[in-house]
UniProtKB/TrEMBL annotation:
Protein's UniProt name: Transcriptional regulator with XRE-family HTH domain
InterPro entries linked: Cro/C1-type_HTH, Lambda_DNA-bd_dom_sf
Annotated ranges, domain HTH cro/C1-type: 48-103
Source species taxonomy: Bacteria, Pseudomonadati, Pseudomonadota, Alphaproteobacteria, Hyphomicrobiales
CDD domains per UniProt: HTH_XRE
SUPFAM superfamilies: lambda repressor-like DNA-binding domains
Gene3D superfamilies in alphabetical order: lambda repressor-like DNA-binding domains (1.10.260.40)
């Protein structure tokens, strides 16, 4: 089992204070420093509003499809309310995006060490999402053969076995 100090060093975490949280927490700095929870909420809200508008879905229709009032749904787009993970999944079903699309906008540093690397990884993910199932399986087998063992073991889903 990994202790907290080892994890802090390994992940490059830094102690940070956020007005939203009662105690200091450890975070990984992003490309523009460490965003507060409020700043991340604002990015998520702006992305959600932009995506809904780009898909031509009215706020009233989005609210109706989610089983919410327009007022309650509007809170998500104004960063006045936080959505739960089940609500995020429901939004993905309605608006046709993947959860990673929204998360990438708020925390691209999770995808790479530079903005360019992060964008390339996100682009690769989007391309993989478009592949037919049989091509995707072939690509997975190929990538597993090309990737060093320890990283493959971490990337394999729980319950899945690693094949060489």
């Amino acid at each position: 089992m990994t202790d907290a100090k080892s994890l802090i060093r390994a992940r490059g975490l830094v102690e940070t204070a956020d007005p939203e949280f009662p105690r200091p927490a450890f975070r990984q700095p992003g490309f523009d420093g460490i965003l507060t929870a409020k700043e991340m909420d604002e990015k998520i809200s702006a992305w959600l509003k932009h995506t809904r508008e780009a898909k031509g879905i009215s706020r009233a229709d989005a609210a109706h499809l989610l089983g919410l009032s327009v007022t309650v749904y509007g809170r998500y787009e104004r960063s006045e309310g936080r959505m739960t993970v089940p609500r995020l999944i429901h939004l993905c079903e309605i608006m046709g995006f993947m959860p990673l699309d929204l998360i990438f906008d708020a925390a691209p540093h999770l995808w790479g060490k530079t903005p360019e690397e992060a964008e390339e990884r996100r682009t690769l993910t989007r391309l993989i999402e478009l592949l037919p199932a049989d091509t995707m399986r072939d690509l997975i087998r190929l990538l597993k053969r090309m990737t060093p063992g320890e990283e493959v073991a971490e990337a394999v889903a729980p319950g899945e076995t690693q094949r060489g």
